[in-house]
Amino acid sequence: MRVLGIASASAALALSAAGTALACNIADFSAEASCDGANGVITVTDTDASGQSAVVSVFLESNGADAKKIGEQTVKGSKAGVTISFSEDWKPNATYRVHVTAGKIVDKDITPNLTTPSKACTAEESPSPSASPSPSDSASAPASSDSPSPSASDSSSTAPAEASDNAPSPAAGTSNLAETGANSNTGLIAGIAAALVVVGGGAVFFGMRRRGAKSDS
């Protein structure tokens, strides 16, 4: 009976120790100030494996007293860790008090108080557009140098027309001869001239005959 009593007491102590180890503890909580781009963030991580529901409150401290309550959230931790975030435009080297309440198990502050980094959050700078040429600019440069401009193509197409306008015109005699040879009235004029010659010859012949007859009489 004595042996059984000792064994039972040992088992009870082991179970109590195991329960205490699994219970929520302020050591399961941690706080950190970080940046999300240009915005400040205070994050609290709960690694309580028992999953005890806890209320986390964050306060801005000034001269050892609460100056402002930043916010309050409820969290249920896990062995892997559960994180909650508070948006806060914190200043460099500012102090925040993080208080945790978990039923009747925990009612304490995370110690030491949270101190923010010495550098404030800033927006990430994007590279200037003028630093590197755009694809459209680099692609358009060879096109303008390789292909002739429209004015050049127009001037080259009108060059033969100007040469033909400056060419000398054919001589006047050549054009008159061409027009005379191509005139359809040439045969008519030649016929009239021949008829006039015949008429003239006949008139001379008859005139000489009449003169001879008068001389005989």
Automatic annotation (TrEMBL):
**Keywords in UniProt for this one?**
Membrane, Signal, Transmembrane, Transmembrane helix
Q: Where is the composition biased (Low complexity)?
A: 123-164
Q: Where is this region: Disordered?
A: 109-183
Q: Where is the composition biased (Polar residues)?
A: 172-183
Any transmembrane segments, and where? 188-208
Give the signal peptide as a residue range, or say none if absent: 1-23
Name of the protein this chain belongs to: Gram-positive cocci surface proteins LPxTG domain-containing protein
